[in-house]
Design goal:
- This protein is of the alpha/beta class.
- It has one domain (about 1-80, about 135-249).
- It is about 35% helix and about 15% strand.
- Strands 1, 2, 3, 4, 5, 6, 7, 8 and 9 form a nine-stranded mixed sheet that branches.
- The chain is globular, with a radius of gyration of 18 Å.
- The two termini are about 25 Å apart.
Length: about 250
């Protein structure tokens, strides 16, 4: 089975952690259980057990070793390299840029790519309030990678694996023609019947579909393929340091 877990990340103290699970059973995209919006406190103090609890809530059981599982997270999973150097006292004074998107203390190469290609200005993890959510996402992703054999792409591996964590950006998809894809639209139409009481989980549903696109390496779900960084002429050392926002082509 192909499983996409979507997480619309909230802050450390808030109550808006949105989760959704979409699966491909070989014939259809199905939503498992109802939308779930909660707080970190309710998820428990052990990050490793959080996934177990989520699988039991959505699937009613643990995942199988044969399942392909991708977790799509709506929050930065990395920081700009120049910002990393700054906080480690290893940076040079920056050149003043005419556009904020060029500020390498604020934006990663992947965010600059999003801006240049789609004219969408992402929030900055280091300059905006998004830093709260980013520290949540990075902390949990690191624990899951360390304990549960997931790999954060492309930082920890530059090729697909059957237990993967990726950064996604549902806000970008809402502005584009992604939902004109029949598989995406029909899945979200079915989601609408579940989501009337959980509007904060809608982005999590898009995250889950993006994750399912990554899990589907053969195109059987008919979801759009993901834009991957390999052919964007971004240095591999930058990708491993900063990450990549996976989005539909």
């Amino acid at each position: 089975m192909l499983i996409g877990l979507g997480w619309d990340v909230g802050g450390w103290q808030g109550k808006k952690q949105g989760f959704a699970v979409a699966v491909w059973d070989g014939m259809n995209i199905e939503w498992k259980n109802s939308p779930y919006v909660t707080s970190l406190a309710q998820l428990g103090s052990d990050p490793s057990k959080v996934l177990d609890n989520l699988w039991k809530r959505f699937l009613g059981k643990e995942i199988s070793p044969d399942d392909t599982v991708v977790i799509g997270i709506d929050a930065p999973l990395g920081w700009p390299r120049d910002f990393q150097a700054l906080i480690n006292n290893a940076s040079e004074f920056p050149k003043r840029e005419k556009k904020q998107i060029k500020n390498r203390f604020a934006y990663r190469k992947t965010e600059q790519y999003i801006y240049e290609k789609y004219e969408k200005m992402p929030l900055s993890a280091s300059f905006d309030k998004l830093g709260n959510n980013a520290t949540v996402a990075i902390s949990y992703a690191k624990e899951w990678a360390n304990r549960d054999l997931y790999r954060v792409l492309p930082q920890q591996r530059n090729f697909f694996c059957r237990r993967a964590i990726i950064e996604v950006y549902p806000g970008l998809e809402k502005l584009r023609d992604s939902f004109k894809n029949d598989a995406v639209q029909s899945a979200l139409d079915r989601w609408a019947s579940l989501s009337h009481d959980a509007p904060d989980a809608y982005d999590a549903a898009i995250c889950a579909l993006l994750a399912l696109s990554m899990a589907d390496q053969t195109g059987e779900t008919r979801l759009p393929r993901l834009e991957v960084p390999e052919d964007k002429e971004i240095d591999e050392t930058v990708l491993k340091a900063e990450g990549w926002i996976y989005h539909w082509k």
